[in-house]
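Model: Ready when you are.
Researcher: Fold this.
Model:
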Amino acid sequence: MPSMNISRVAALSAVIIIFALQPLSAVQARPSPISYTYAEIAYQETEFEIPGGDVDADGVKLEGSIELGKYFHALARLETNQFDSVNTGFGVVNFPDVDEFGIGIGVHTPLTPGEPNRLYSDRFSGFLQLEFLNADPDTGSDVDGFAITSGIRIINSTAFEFIGEFGYEEFDGADGELQLGARLLYEFVPNLKAQVGVETNDENTQWFIGARYSFRGVGLFQ
């Protein structure tokens, strides 16, 4: 993984975590503000590395999750990538647009209200997710893959939330990639959050901005 990409995400994550943890002393015990039942939409821009340079793509990301009891959640997502044309000096190269689908299952730490000596247990959550993926270019055959992602969610009393992720993704016929991700969310009205984030691996770096709506207290098998 390019050292510049790792250092950029690591520095961003460190700054966000330090900032997010500052006001924790003001937290009072209450039901958890973290929910694994949500829907989100984001605009994304991605830079893919290719021999001799790189190519840019943009698109839309749709993602949703629903809690399954106390410890589990199901998730699904759809991403579109529309590639720019590249002038190589030997002519213009057009890359096929790609839609990527994902569906999976996750496990997370229980979201309990604050208790004596565990005041912030409801404001921190760890998770592990397994996704089955399908990449569908507008020309050629689609490709299946999978992703395993672990991460943390931290939320403080000023309505900021930090999500950090580390994972592995692999598609049929291609080498697997380690991935890093970080995002910052801000709840500007109840349950509705604005977000900005970055994900990076050996082959690409993706930035996105969007919104997430949480359905607190909603789930299956509760």
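Researcher: Now this one.
Model:
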Amino acid sequence: MRLICNKLMVADLAKATAFYEDVLHQEVYEVFDDMIVFKSNIALVSLSRWSEKAASFNQNVTVGFADSILHFEESHFDLYLFEIESRGDIRFLHRVVKRKNGQRLIRFFDPDNHVIEVSEANNRLPDDLMASLVDYNEEVDILSCTEQPCISHCSGIAFLDKKTDKKE
């Protein structure tokens, strides 16, 4: 068995497609009436279409609510940070944090509240990558947090306030 693609339910297919193209630099591979498939094998599916199918089985369908995380790596992380932070229309889960292994990342929401995680490219060997999977109880430093509030505990990560050296 093999995974073909990840499908995300979206309330507004056009709005979500624009977000994934503009913010996440995804390229459309195929367009259907109720679904967009990107070259990265992410698919956006219209909620209205799936709601009709689910109703026939007496099921309700919802979107988002931070129920999943899409992880991207960016080789030009600092340039991407500048781009995303200057947009003004992004809802951040938190600004840049640094893991103990030195890798920086940022998390924010797409228009349907799916969590998007973008980290700087990590060019380590697969064994090293597997050995350094994040312990979600480790402390990380907040590198930048502007006027928007940062969530202190995301997925069990405890952030360390550099100014006071106290856990938030």
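Researcher: Key takeaway?
Model: The longest helix spans residues 13-22.
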